[in-house]
């Protein structure tokens, strides 16, 4: 039985989330957010992972007292929850409030390979 994209991509997203947690523990908030952005790119075609990563970005914003990021994440959580299932996501978008939620962005080759691997079911 073919596993869903959400199931196939889960291990790769979880690696990035674990890296984010380690960066947080080390006090490196910028690197933590960079890992959350990578998790976003990898998981944004899955409603579950897309929403989860935006929630974690909102938590990051609250912990780092970033009102702009928190506001942006509220908007993105609603969008990811309602639009992902319809394929209405801009590929490669890193998910932070520093970029338009509608902007397509290049996908790093290592992340593109993981996405393709998950889609092919390998």
Overall spatial form: globular
* N-to-C CA distance: 13 Å
Q: What structural class should be given to the helix and strand makeup?
A: mainly alpha
β-strand amount: under 5%
Number of strands: 0
Q: Work out the helix count.
A: 5
Q: Topology as H/E string?
A: HHHHH
Query: For the residues shown, what is the average pLDDT?
Result: 96
Helix content: 55-70%
**Unreliable stretches:** none
Radius of gyration: 14 Å
Largest sheet entry? none
How would you name the oligomeric state of the polypeptide chains in this document?
single chain
Outline the secondary-structure elements.
Blueprint: H1 5-25, H2 29-43, H3 47-63, H4 67-83, H5 109-120
Descriptors:
single chain, 122 residues, mainly alpha, 5 helices, 0% strand
Concise summary:
The chain is an all-alpha fold and 122 residues long. It has helices spanning 5-25, 29-43, 47-63, 67-83, 109-120. The radius of gyration is 14 Å and the shape is globular.
Structure description:
- Helix content is 67%, strand content 0%.
- By secondary structure, it is mainly α.
- Helix 1 packs parallel to helix 3, helix 2 (29-43) packs antiparallel against helix 3 (47-63) and helix 3 (47-63) runs antiparallel to helix 4 (67-83).
- It starts with a helix and ends with a helix.
- The chain has helices at 5-25, 29-43, 47-63, 67-83, 109-120.
- The mean pLDDT is 96.
- The longest helix has 21 residues, at 5-25.
- It is globular, with a radius of gyration of 14 Å.
